[in-house]
Design goal:
- The chain is mainly beta.
- Helix content is 2%, strand content 51%.
- It has a single domain (11-334), classed as Beta-galactosidase, Chain A, domain 5 (Distorted Sandwich).
- The strands form 3 sheets. Strands 1, 2, 5, 6, 7, 8, 9, 10, 16, 19, 22 and 23 form a 12-stranded antiparallel beta sheet that branches. An 11-stranded mixed beta sheet has the order 4-3-11-12-13-14-25-21-20-17-18, with no helix packed on it. A two-stranded antiparallel ribbon has the order 15-24.
- A hairpin with a 5-residue loop joins strand 5 and strand 6.
Length: 345
């Protein structure tokens, strides 16, 4: 796959897509076999991206060295090991459906700081890798993450689940603590772009050339209560992407009516890159608002679209050593296919 980059574009978009960066490149040299156990193969290698950051890696508590990128493969029955995941020290995570290509990327928490501006993601500084379970073994990783500005988590946990034929899943959890007094920029709160709990990024050049082409989510369309009985109706909304500089949801974004935001590849281009999804567990989906940003580009390798869930209940200020948020979510890569839409605004 080719290295991804982002093109230049005006002000808000320039800052808000920082950290998407060079993502799909998988060039490998000086690779080290870290795990070969229970159908899992994990290889540590160099990340040749411009925003590379090293992960100090141990396996079952034994130090193995520092690597910019970890590549995860799974041995399916009757086949060789097939790539299903990539984790980079820069904080980027990629998932692939078995025997399918990698496409867009997942990123950890980012936010707008009153002084520092956009702080795009948390970097991963160290991980201990353990393979747990029998026939359905998972790769459990525990370590530390930090944005280098204001927040860190000493209890970061990432679990690569056993792949399914049409799906690959990873589970992420961590508790963010303030490492200094800091302020969350409330000026852009109305656009739901001030505290991104988790983010997905991919390419959209045209209807014929893209990794993903639709932002999909459910929203509450009616909520009525009589005495102790409440009835809630949700509908699925699909926003088709455009190669332009703009927020995807230009009106005040609604709260989620379900747990997930989908970054869809509907399969129309036969690109076979996966649909991505984030399921928000903590903060709860009722505190999450979907949003996205598009950037005009002519580069078919640029991750020029970013989609995220914004934490509506974030406070304006946090004190050093105080808890900021507990984050728990499920990351998914799904085989490309059309998904139903009640509304196509």
């Amino acid at each position: 796959m080719m290295n991804r980059c982002w093109s230049s574009f005006p002000t808000l978009a320039t800052i808000a897509l920082m950290g998407i960066g060079v993502t799909a490149g998988r060039a490998i040299y000086a690779d080290t076999n870290l795990v070969d156990e229970k159908s899992w193969v994990v290889v540590g290698t160099d990340d040749l991206s411009t925003n590379a950051s090293g992960i100090a890696v141990s396996v079952n508590g034994h130090a193995m060295g520092t690597f910019g990128e970890l590549a995860f493969s799974y041995i399916l029955e009757g086949t060789n090991a097939v790539p299903v995941g990539v984790v980079k020290g820069s904080g980027e995570i990629q998932l692939a459906v078995p025997n399918g290509p990698f496409g867009g990327s997942f990123f950890l928490t980012g936010y707008w700081d009153c002084d520092a501006g956009y702080v795009p993601t948390m970097t991963i500084s160290n991980l201990d890798i353990r393979v747990k379970g029998g026939k359905k073994a998972v790769v459990e990783m525990k370590g530390r993450i930090s944005n280098g500005v204001s927040m860190a988590a000493k209890d970061f946990e990432l679990m690569m689940m056993m792949p399914k034929p049409q799906e690959m899943e990873a589970q992420v959890s961590y508790q963010l603590m303030a490492t200094t007094d800091f302020c969350v920029d409330e000026i852009i709160h109305t656009n739901q772009d001030n505290f991104q709990v988790a983010r997905m990024a991919g390419n959209y050049l045209s209807a014929e050339t893209n990794d993903n082409d639709i932002l999909r989510f459910s929203r509450v369309t009616s909520h009525t209560c009589v005495l102790d009985y409440c009835n809630r109706t949700t509908k699925s909304f699909c926003y088709h992407l455009v190669n332009q500089d703009s927020l995807i949801l230009t009106n005040k974004p609604p709260q989620l009516g379900g747990r997930a935001i989908w970054f869809v590849n509907d399969g129309a281009t036969n690109s076979n890159t996966p649909t991505l999804a984030v399921k928000f567990m903590t903060p709860s989906s009722g505190q999450i608002h979907p949003q996205g940003l598009e950037s005009a580009t002519a580069d078919p390798t640029a991750e020029n679209v970013s989609v995220w869930g914004n934490w509506h209940s974030v406070k304006g200020t946090y004190r050093n050593k105080k808890k900021v948020a507990s984050v728990r979510c499920i990351l998914e890569a799904l085989s490309p296919q059309p998904l139903s839409c009640d509304y196509n605004p």
